[in-house]
Design brief:
Blueprint: E1 4-13, E2 16-26, E3 31-35, H1 42-50, E4 57-62, H2 73-79, E5 80-83, H3 95-103, H4 112-118, H5 134-146, E6 152-156, H6 164-179, E7 183-187, H7 191-197, E8 200-205, E9 208-213, E10 226-231, E11 247-249, E12 252-257, H8 260-274, E13 282-285, H9 288-295
Parallel strand pairs: 3-7, 3-8, 5-6, 6-7
Antiparallel strand pairs: 1-2, 1-4, 8-9, 10-12, 10-13, 11-12
Helix pairs in contact: 3-4
Length: 300
């Protein structure tokens, strides 16, 4: 059974449609990224999955139960973790006090010291929340999300406000959680974060899912045109190259092709045969960001 199963989900507010016919599954232990511009329906969808908002139609299962079923609300609350963009935390409590207090809400919480270590706040354990930097407070938010040792963790923009070091530490934590069996559903506007973490991706636009798949295949990334680049070897002219329609600018060769294997085979074979080096040889696919922007570009 998937950790999350969504089938033909719909949510309307009068004449306003927030979510229309949305379907996707999140497998146990998977990192799933739900992407989309502001107003696309991400927050509504996630709040329905968490049981904080009722749906207008469709079927939803979160950890095998209907999140709108009041009889299982208490149980579901103990099995999920939620990290919002902003959490209200008592500013005069210390990191340890806040985590200890919240650990008491769960039947089998993670050890407080273990969580403090995981979120990189060991040196700040007895520091008051109001004294923490913005990035440190964001780490504490994540700590509050995992203190209950959840089976399913919702992360809303988990690395907003973090410096590069903090972002990488958060990525490592998410990978560790997933490796230990925790299912993670995250939203983010950072495409490098999606490529680094997500097993699967779904893109919401105008209340509907417009594409889904792996980060490497969504939108045809794995089968579209690629660009092969390298520095033109000394003494070689573009006409010498065994490649279709090479474009040379400032000594850099660019070849666009949808038959990369054949072109690379011909190029490297030619270079080896004639003793040439192809400095900076690289193959670039259309970026995930480009795919995302194409999928979410409003019609003129």
């Amino acid at each position: 059974m998937p950790a999350v199963s969504v089938s033909h989900l719909a949510k309307s507010y009068g004449d306003l449609t927030a979510v229309r016919d949305v379907s996707f599954d999140v497998e146990k232990g998977e990192v799933f990224a739900l992407l989309g511009p502001n107003g696309a329906g991400k927050t509504t969808t996630i709040e329905i999955l968490e049981g904080f908002r009722d749906r207008s139609g469709g079927d939803v299962q979160t950890l095998g139960v209907d999140p709108s079923d009041r009889s299982t609300h208490r149980w579901l609350r103990t099995r999920i973790g939620v990290v919002l963009q902003e959490l209200a935390v008592e500013p005069f409590f210390s990191v340890r006090q806040v985590l200890t207090r919240n650990a008491g809400y769960y039947p089998s919480p993670r050890p407080v010291d273990e969580v403090i270590e995981l979120i990189g706040l060991k040196e700040k354990a007895d520091q008051k929340v109001k004294k923490l930097s913005g990035g440190q407070q964001r780490r504490l938010d994540v700590g509050l999300g995992i203190i209950g040792n959840p089976d399913l963790l919702f992360l809303d923009e988990p690395t907003t406000g973090l410096d590069p070091s903090g972002r990488r530490a958060s990525w490592d934590l998410i990978r560790e959680l997933a490796a230990s069996g925790t299912t993670v559903l995250l939203t983010t506007h950072y495409m490098d974060e999606v490529e680094a973490l997500a097993d699967k991706v779904a893109v919401l636009f105008k209340a509907e899912i417009v594409a889904s798949g792996t980060p490497t295949s969504i939108g045809g990334r794995d089968s579209g045109t690629v660009t092969i680049r390298f520095v033109l070897p000394e003494g070689v002219t573009p006409s010498d190259l065994p490649a279709p329609s090479p474009v040379v600018a400032d000594g850099i060769v660019k070849i666009s092709t949808d038959d990369e294997l054949r072109v690379l085979h011909d190029l490297t074979g030619w270079a080896l045969e004639h003793g040439h080096v192809l400095p900076g040889l690289a193959v670039t696919r259309v970026s995930l960001e480009d795919i995302y922007l194409d999928l979410t570009r409003a019609e003129p």
